[in-house]
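debug: dumping io for the single-chain case to check the tokenizer round-trip. Nothing else runs in this session.
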Amino acid sequence: MKIGYCVEGATDRAVVAGLQRRWCPEAELVQGRFRGTTGLRLRAEIPSICSELDAKGCAVIVFLTDANTSASDKVAEIERTQKRHVSPVLASRVLSGVAARNIESWLCCDRNWIAGQTQRDPADFSVDDPKRVFESAMNITPSNRQEAAIADLVSDAPLKQWISRSRSFERFYEDARTLSQSALGKSLGCSMPNERENLPRTS
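debug: decoded output
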């Protein structure tokens, strides 16, 4: 099975990889071509990206972008706009996620956990936009985006806490869970766990 995806940057790509490893480990990830660098540009290219990934045999297609705002009504509107770009023919196979503020806000929504993983003080992550502190804690540089390390974090993250602390992640999770339990999802053979019941994992 192939899962196609398109994201804004390296950290988003690592999050997709970590979730794929956790939710559908037998799947192959296929990245769609995206010529821009912003969520706004990506949303404009969704129809062509869907066509490309569908032609490559991807059973599921994932889009993940940053809202660049934490205002819940604006995040929800961006989600609706992003979904409107998806063809009705492919809508049942497309997961469209928009992280409130940015993807780092998902990664850092459980401050005690991320602080423990990075040997930092939880207070360091008590900011509206954790992107800068997360990149510092993970030693991310222009030449080393630490994608493997971030994917490892996500694959073992306490997603139950992410669901309870991030409304935008909760919506993305619910859409993924609904797809996995549909006739299409069952035919693809992915057995996605109920993260609302799962306790944080230990290595």
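debug: round-trip ok. The chain has a mean pLDDT of 92.
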